[in-house]
Design goal:
Shape: globular
Strand content: 15-25%
Family: Belongs to the carbohydrate kinase PfkB family.
Organism: Pseudooceanicola lipolyticus
Domain Carbohydrate kinase PfkB: 2-304
Keywords: ATP-binding, Kinase, Nucleotide-binding, Transferase
CATH architecture: 3-Layer(aba) Sandwich
Protein name: Carbohydrate kinase
CATH superfamily: Ribokinase
Number of strands: 14
Length: 315
């Protein structure tokens, strides 16, 4: 099972009201939550480790996980409020305003997390859950404790406006990078992590030197490239899509990468780094395929496996 560790929150999506004003509709979301949902819909065994509220929004999130066949054994429930993210859309691009103080998600502490189920073979981390303690430190401790036994994928998906202590966040991300096997970044993430004047390839080299054996860079409509410490670069084009919005696109891409790597037997510590170029290309291409479906419809709405008409089941 792939255990997705991080935030589950409510995206408040703008919608026109009857009087031509703007209201907000609550949609289940969060970067790590979206990846878990996408994995479940793709038929990959997936679980979620997060803090969920017992309020109406927490119940909405819990119901959504179960409806997409995500294992909730490791969810920690509390009476704290749910995290809310108000979304603004401009030309299909999403920006966020978060309300997270004292939330069930934010206040997840190390002592809340018990032993992981024995069938957990890979851990996925990322998003705003790595920004602020105590939850951020809880996930760091979990990653360090299971490094070497579980494959670890990290997508920092950096939201600078959400970080309360930038030096502490940089130190935390450095420790996460040191134990990660696969890291996915955008060019914006890479520029924030390494803000100097160095060229892109120098920053990627610094990222790989920090720990991971594979770095995947996504460039929206320009596709994705995997960079390996042995010097190989494998690129795939983006799948053609009529973009409605980009909410959840990167999260779904990550699910596609994890799902295909799992199917090919590559989701082990160091497994993807030792794979052939054709296998790595298949992993990236599947990520691009499922992300293309998500961007073609409103909100974070990943595809079910049967929607991928051209995808053949694993042998």
């Amino acid at each position: 099972m792939i255990l997705c560790c991080g935030e589950a929150l409510i995206d408040m999506i703008p919608a026109k009201t009857e009087d031509a004003g703007t209201g907000f509709v609550p949609h289940s979301g969060g970067s790590v939550f979206n990846t878990a949902i996408a994995l479940g819909r793709l038929g990959t065994r997936a679980g979620m480790l997060t803090g969920l509220s017992r309020d109406l929004f927490g119940r909405q999130l819990d119901d959504a996980l179960k409806a997409s066949h995500v294992d909730t054994r490791t969810v920690v429930y509390s009476d704290r409020p749910a995290t809310l993210a108000f979304v603004q859309l401009e030309a299909g691009h999403a920006t966020y305003t978060f309300y997270d103080e004292n939330s069930a998600n934010r206040m997840l502490a190390p002592e809340d997390v018990g032993a992981l189920p024995e069938d957990v073979l890979a851990l996925y981390f990322g998003g705003i859950s790595l920004c602020n303690p105590p939850a951020a430190d809880t996930y760091l401790e979990l990653a360090e404790r299971h490094a070497g036994r579980c494959a670890i994928m990290l997508d920092p998906n950096i939201r600078p406006s959400f970080i309360s202590d930038i030096p502490a966040y940089r130190a935390r991300i450095a420790r996460m990078l040191a134990v990660a096997d696969i890291v996915k970044v955008s060019d914006e993430d890479l520029g924030w992590l390494y803000p100097g004047p160095e060229a892109l390839m120098e920053k990627l080299a610094a990222l790989l030197k920090a720990g991971p054996s594979v770095a995947i860079m996504t460039r929206g409509g320009s596709g994705a490239t995997a960079y390996l410490r042995d010097g190989r670069e494998i690129s795939v084009a983006a799948e053609p899509a009529q973009v409605v919005d980009t909410v959840g696109a990167g999260d779904t891409f990550n699910a596609g990468v994890l799902a295909k790597a799992s199917e090919l037997g590559l989701l082990t510590p160091g497994g993807l780094a030792e794979a052939g170029e054709a296998e790595i290309s298949d992993v990236l291409a599947f990520g691009a395929k499922v992300a293309a479906v998500t961007v073609s419809r409103a909100g974070a709405n990943p595809p079910w496996r049967e929607e991928l008409a051209q995808e053949r089941p694993p042998a």
